[in-house]
Amino acid sequence: MSSTKTPSSTLSPPVLKSLKLNSSGLGQATPKPLSPKLASPKLSFSLGETITKPSLKPAVWSPSTTPLVLVKRESETHDSMSFTFAAADQALFDFKPGQFVTLAVKIENKTHYRAYSISSAPQQKQLRLTIKRVPDGLVSNWLADNLSIGDSLSALNIAGQFNSSDCKHKSKLLLISAGCGITPVMSIAKTLLAHNSDADIEFLHCARDKDNVIFHDEMQTLLTQYSNFKVQLLLENSDGFATFSANNNTNEKTNEKTNSRALSHQTGMVSADVIRQLYPDLNQRTIFLCGPVGFMKAVENIAQESDFDMANFFQESFTPAADNKQQDQISSGATETSVMLHVPDFAVEAEVIQGSLLLDALEKHGVPVIGACRAGVCGSCKCKVTKGSVTSTSTETLTEEDVEQGFVLACSSTLKDDVTVALS
Ligand code: FES
To answer: What gap in Å lies between CA 197 and CA 168, rounded to an integer?
Structure first.
């Protein structure tokens, strides 16, 4: 795939008009666009008064008022696809690199909310989401099969604590991803490269084989643009991939020196040996990590065993667009004992199985709770247990005060006994 291509369908930018003040002080539009950079903050008025000039800052997209319009869709691998959106009002997308957007997708008259990591850089007029099909997944597969250029979608918010703005980091970084976990990490890489010329960025991406490497061409392009960027691919199976040594960039098939900026790759799985061999200066770096849960646990263990300072270790706690998988795993702890679920605001009094996921139980009984990430990271399913108790595996977006007051994340909480719940 190539992200550098011009979108097949784009919308024209808004025209910024300067205001020329006449002697009465009334504004009059002039036809020539004025660059925001050239605009001075104040204008002297002919009668000697100083007035504040209206702001010419570009509008920022607001999910609550403006839908997203699909302007481009492109295949990344056999089971993943990038969707590029523009705001219907041509606003800029303002977010922190690494964050996700929660989409509201209507399928057969029911709205489903799902969180997807953003793979583009912020402060642009286009927003790219890269989505992987999920076996038996509802929303991801529906988007891949049905969303066409010109279609619009609503969104709830942009959020996420895994981002390179809030997570304090060193100028030396190691970005690690696997599979579709590359999505937020690519946004971080592109933003840092564009704005931090002193950054020293190593990127380790793991995949099954070359055909499953998302953003392969885009990484190659970044390599040729930025000398402070290095990429290492770690492939379980590298058949059919010209073999480059990780260290000396020699093509082993032709024995010729290759472009020193070519993508390097090794065959294998992530391990302490591989990490030590590739990154002898590991402890001088900040790590940003995203991928499947087992992969992230393995990397976390390697870091801990290497005496890595975990204050410099940041990971995204969910694989974007996991649809209902994690929810099913949490629900599998359910027993056959029944407990009562009360939701007075929606007149719900229902018998449910002890150990059920609270989010499942609420949805099943028609309570309009929003479960966007379904993995305890977005906060959209926050609700209050006013009586009874639940067992929670994540309180990630809740404050200590929230927890004291009984707030829980429904997607990460199972029912222990009879509970009474309020949505806010
Ligand atoms: S659905 Fe995102 S935290 Fe529960």
So the answer is: 17
